[in-house]
């Protein structure tokens, strides 16, 4: 809990006890005596005419009334915390914070955006958290993050998510990605959906939008994918495809930037996927959030207007690299 937030002491103590699971650990975390903490909770319960906590051995649990009350206490704390951050965030962006949530895919696709933002506003502290796209919407709605960048078109159906605002930044085409150890490395011909079903794949798990996108494609064309490995790490996927015979599905722009990966277009093509920026509608938006959203729109509009990629020297993972080395040529 942010100690800079002015918040009633009994409520601070209640939240701490629930978070730490005991009076003792909560007292240690708050640097107060346990009797003082217990007295504050007792006075709070007396004022509410209802018990909030039940001790069971060394552990503590909330009563039914406590479950209801702490929900409102946390909500109140969140509002006060937002107020504290609003005061601290100065309009000239010389200091402040920005809490950003993104998926493993948008991590790779928008790193240059973060670099640009950090370079322009060095006084803003960026805090990033990787999570599935569905969790990003909830985190924005609950004000646990300021901005989300998701690899999907959000479809918020729950009433509590109606305060979410989503704007598409750009679209990405998806391709089969293989490495040098795969027999399709360097192949120019398209791969049919049925041929895709014969590839041993490494994919993100079903928590992530990209995986669900792949599953829908396979279902539509009657393909049963051969999934060798599931993971929540895009770095693991890229490394294993670079060094082994497994294949995967990735945005084409990611494949083109990774040494030793080759994009192969599918036939029929896999539908493009959207990269979406998610913010909270009607809530507090810090100067840093507004600046980031504006920069993201500009960056997305100009991301294709870049200097053409120069022809790269042989990749260290490729046979061509070693042939160059044997000839005494220097390679990157």
Structure summary:
The protein has 332 residues and is of the alpha/beta class. Helix content is 42%, strand content 22%. It has three domains: 9-88, Orthogonal Bundle (Arc Repressor Mutant, subunit A); 96-170 and 274-302, D-Maltodextrin-Binding Protein, domain 2 (3-Layer(aba) Sandwich); 173-271, D-Maltodextrin-Binding Protein, domain 2.
Explain this structure.
The chain is α/β, with parallel strands linked by helices and 332 residues long. The chain has three domains: 9-88, Arc Repressor Mutant, subunit A; 96-170 and 274-302, D-Maltodextrin-Binding Protein, domain 2 (3-Layer(aba) Sandwich), CATH 3.40.190; 173-271, D-Maltodextrin-Binding Protein, domain 2 (3-Layer(aba) Sandwich), CATH 3.40.190.290. It contains 13 helices and 13 strands. It has helices at 9-20, 23-30, 34-48, 64-88, 104-109, 111-120, 133-141, 193-196, 209-220, 234-243, 252-257, 287-302, 319-326, and strands spanning 53-56, 59-62, 96-102, 124-130, 147-150, 164-178, 191-192, 200-204, 226-231, 248-251, 262-264, 266-267, 270-280. The strands form four sheets. Strands 3, 4, 5, 6, 10, 11 and 13 form a seven-stranded mixed β-sheet that branches. It has a two-stranded antiparallel ribbon with strand order 1-2. β8 (200-204), α9 and β9 (226-231) form a beta-alpha-beta unit. α1 crosses α2 (23-30) and α1 (9-20) crosses α3. The longest helix is centred in the first third of the chain and has 25 residues, at 64-88. The chain starts with 8 loop residues before the first helix and ends in a 6-residue tail after the last helix. Residues 156-160, 306-314 and 320-332 have low confidence and may be disordered.
